Amino acid sequence: MVPISVFDAHCDTISRCWALEEGLADNTGEVSLERTVGFARYCQMFALWTAEGYSGWSAYQQLLKCFQEQMEQNPGCVIQCRTAAEAEQANRQGRAAAFLTVEGAELLDCDPDRLPQAARDGVVAINLTWNHANALSGAHADQPERGLSEIGRRFVEKMEELRILVDVSHLSEAGFWDVAEIASRPFIASHSNAKSVWNHTRNLTNEQITAIIGNQGVIGLNFYEGFVGGSRDLDMVRAHLDRILELGGARNVALGGDWDGCDLIADLPAIDSLPRLYEYLLLHGYDEAVVQDLFYNNLMRVVR
Question: With pLDDT > 70 as the criterion, what percentage of the chain qualifies?
Answer without folding.
Answer: 100
